Amino acid sequence: MSFVRQDDRKVDELRSVRITPNISPYAEGSALIEVGRTKVICTASVEDRVPPFLRNKGTGWVTAEYAMLPRATNTRTQRETMRPTGRTQEIQRLIGRSLRAVVDMKLLGERQIFLDCDVIQADGGTRCASITGAYVALALACRRLVQTGVVRANPILSEVAAVSVGICEETTILDLAYVEDSSAEVDMNIVCTGEGKFIEIQGTAEREPFSRDQMNAMLALAEKGIKELFEQQRKALAG
């Protein structure tokens, strides 16, 4: 008997995806991304300064912050007002690495772009949604820098998006919702560029170890989903 998903999706089917651009009138770039019941507000803020280790080097920087609102989940999560948890730090670094991989820092010049990803509703896949939505916010901010003559050329080198895959009841599935993620035998997050190159592969066996064939099947499924996410990003940026 094949695995039956709670929302009746096919094993290779993404949740419904909606990206609404320009949702913040103040940020240089912004987007609301909705992946099923997961919702993340992503904003890009440009500052004419760089971290101390990059001063006077003629290069820019892209960094990220991630947060989950207290009632983004079934029970209230305490605000991380003093120091982010280990999970939050891991996700922030992942988002930052993913977006830096597709930006020409020399073209950006001595300026920094902050990507803030705030989860307003969580149902699995928040880090992947954050990366996918943050790309749209970043692309809008860089487009604005070009239009206003701040930079001579768009520093974005490629698209980037992320999706989760996993194994539930020995079945490989795409884009895990929370109920699937919490019971999966294997959980994997994949980040890819528009050229199909991998930026990050995070995979963990929660119970039984997985084989090379299973890993290849998950990677193929992730590539399919990411191509569909690129289409959604393009629609948002064309609107």
How does this model look, in words?
- The chain is of the alpha+beta class.
- The chain is about 30% helix and about 30% strand.
- It has helices at about 85-100, 105-110, 125-145, 180, 210-239; strands at about 15-20, 30-35, 40-45, 60-70, 110-120, 160-170, 170-175, 185-195, 200-205.
- A five-stranded mixed β-sheet has the order 1-2-3-5-4. Strands 7-6-8-9 form a four-stranded antiparallel β-sheet, sandwiched between helices.
- α1 crosses α3 (about 125-145) and α3 runs parallel beside α5 (about 210-239).
- The chain is globular, with a radius of gyration of 18 Å.
- The chain starts with 16 loop residues before the first strand and ends with a helix.
- The mean pLDDT is about 95.
Structural class by secondary-structure content: alpha+beta
Terminus-to-terminus distance: 43 Å
Q: Which regions contain 5 or more consecutive residues with pLDDT less than 50? A: none
The assembly state of the depicted protein chains is single chain
The major beta sheet can be summarized as: 5 strands, mixed
Helix residue percentage? 25-40%
How do the strands of the widest beta sheet line up side by side? 1-2-3-5-4
Number of beta-strand segments: 9
Quick rundown:
This protein is α+β, with helices and mostly antiparallel strands and 239 residues long. 30% of the residues lie in helices and 29% in strands.
